[in-house]
């Protein structure tokens, strides 16, 4: 008789399964992982993930349903969207991750988390945008380090996964995993769970059950999903780049610029020491008018 196993999946578009299309919707790595557990367990699977989700949105809109499921295993992959928002707040992201981890472990869940690779460098973003985004991602990873230290569980360090350098593991937008990428994630997490004593089959890396990739499907994805996503993020990253450019110009101007900023030293990060009242007025107003998603 199979052992009953409850699995809850929280997070953003990666856990929704975007990049791994199947008839009727998306599948993704967490579904593939559950399928790998299903031969040995009677699995009850609850996926609360929402595309575009931030850590605060996960805490507000997903956590209660996940906790109510009383999971034995809870996957929590989120945080990248936080780094792309003009409302970025490292301490808030940290508190949200810790609060979600505590609530899930309090009901007995084994946490399944992540440590992100430096995706801004991997996709070749311009330096002015890459540097602050990489710094933000490092802050997200530091929060996950604290989560892992306090609550344990299993964690995948994507920097140690060679698949991140495989173009075939990425969708046409280079932001979401392809089917092969989702399969690689599922296999990596299956290995970690097997090390913890779970009976889990190794997910195959070979495509199966999904919709075959084609240039027509890729073009449709760019038009329907990718284009609007870039438009939303451009409204966030535009002010970020402008503030970074402003900071760089102030540093380059030398001592007189230092007097203009109240004598504060500006460090290596293009955004370090730059407050909203020091950036161009247009940038400040655009950031303050930013919608939540």
DSSP summary: helix tally: 11
Uncertain runs: 256-293
* Number of E strands: 7
> Approximately what portion of the residues adopt beta-strand conformation?
5-15%
Helix fraction bin: 40-55%
What class do helices, strands and sheet pairing give?
A: alpha/beta
Q: What can you see in these coordinates?
A:
The structure is a single chain. The protein has 293 residues and is of the alpha/beta class. 50% of the residues lie in helices and 12% in strands. The protein has eleven helices and seven strands. It has helices at 13-16, 29-37, 55-68, 80-83, 90-106, 119-122, 127-151, 179-195, 215-253, 255-260, 281-288, and strands at 3-11, 21-22, 25-26, 41-47, 73-77, 110-115, 154-157. The strands form two sheets. It has a five-stranded parallel beta sheet with strand order 4-1-5-6-7, sandwiched between helices. It has a two-stranded antiparallel ribbon with strand order 2-3. The longest helix has 39 residues, at 215-253. The model is unreliable at 256-293 (pLDDT under 50).
Provide key terms for this protein.
single chain, 293 residues, alpha/beta, 5-stranded parallel β-sheet, two-stranded antiparallel ribbon, 11 helices, globular, disordered C terminus
Record the SSE blueprint.
Layout: E1 3-11, H1 13-16, E2 21-22, E3 25-26, H2 29-37, E4 41-47, H3 55-68, E5 73-77, H4 80-83, H5 90-106, E6 110-115, H6 119-122, H7 127-151, E7 154-157, H8 179-195, H9 215-253, H10 255-260, H11 281-288
Parallel strand pairs: 1-4, 1-5, 5-6, 6-7
Antiparallel strand pairs: 2-3
Helix pairs in contact: 2-8, 3-5, 5-7, 9-11
């Amino acid at each position: 008789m199979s052992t009953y196993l409850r699995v809850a999946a929280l997070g953003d578009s990666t856990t929704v399964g975007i990049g791994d299309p199947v008839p009727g919707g998306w599948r993704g790595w967490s579904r593939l992982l559950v399928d790998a557990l299903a031969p040995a367990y009677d699995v009850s699977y609850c996926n609360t993930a929402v595309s575009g989700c931030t850590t605060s949105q996960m805490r507000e809109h997903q956590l209660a349903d996940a906790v109510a499921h009383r999971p034995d295993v809870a996957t929590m992959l989120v945080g990248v969207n936080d780094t792309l928002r003009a409302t970025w707040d490292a301490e808030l992201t940290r508190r949200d991750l810790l609060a979600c981890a505590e609530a899930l472990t309090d009901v007995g869940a084994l946490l399944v988390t992540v440590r992100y690779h430096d995706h801004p460098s991997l996709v070749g973003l311009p330096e002015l945008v890459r540097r602050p985004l990489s710094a933000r991602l490092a802050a997200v990873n530091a929060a996950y380090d604290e989560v892992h230290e306090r609550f344990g569980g299993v964690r995948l360090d994507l920097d140690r996964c060679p698949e991140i350098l495989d173009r075939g593991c990425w969708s046409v937008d280079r932001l979401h995993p392809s089917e092969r990428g989702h399969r690689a994630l599922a296999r990596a997490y299956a290995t970690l769970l097997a090390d913890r004593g779970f009976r889990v089959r190794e997910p195959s890396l070979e495509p199966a059950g999904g919709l075959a990739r084609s240039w027509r499907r890729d073009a449709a994805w760019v038009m329907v999903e990718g284009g609007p996503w870039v438009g939303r993020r451009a409204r966030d990253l535009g002010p970020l780049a402008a503030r970074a450019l402003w900071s760089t110009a102030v540093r380059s101007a030398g001592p007189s610029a230092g007097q203009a900023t109240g004598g504060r030293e500006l460090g290596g990060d293009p955004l370090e020491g730059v407050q909203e009242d020091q950036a161009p007025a247009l940038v400040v107003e655009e950031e303050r008018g930013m919608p939540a998603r």
